[in-house]
Amino acid sequence: MPRRRRYWLAKSEPFKYSWSDFEKDGSTYWDGVRNAQARNSLAEMKKSDLVLFYHSNEGKEVVGIAKVTKESYPDPTTDDERWVVVELAPLKAMKEPVTLQQIKSDPELAETALIKQSRLSVMPLSKPAFDRILELGGTQV
Description:
The chain is an alpha+beta fold. The protein has a single domain (7-136), classed as ph1033 like domains (ph1033 like fold, Roll). It has 5 helices and 6 strands; from the N terminus they run E-H-E-H-E-E-E-H-H-E-H. A hairpin with a 5-residue loop joins strand 3 (50-55) and strand 4.
């Protein structure tokens, strides 16, 4: 039986690496994660999983959808073997960015890690939460 696709949200500060940078690059490895729970999420990601790209600090909004293209491997930016990266490629920009305020005010999203564990930089999303955020952004995969 094939594995079910999973859904994630990954945060990036736009002044460090924005959605437009990501689109221009065409792919990237997701590095710099230094939280064990976020690292564990990276390690669980599988090829073809979908990832919402969230601008943190500035904007505070979901701006795009990415796809996992390579599963976890050691983070090349550190000698500490505990940390991993995955490779992502942009799929499409959100038709309308979905703000943190919209997410916080939506009862269907009240239990998401973005609300419950807001400091995590990478987190799982349920399929219903992923679909709801796409709906709020007027976007389809």
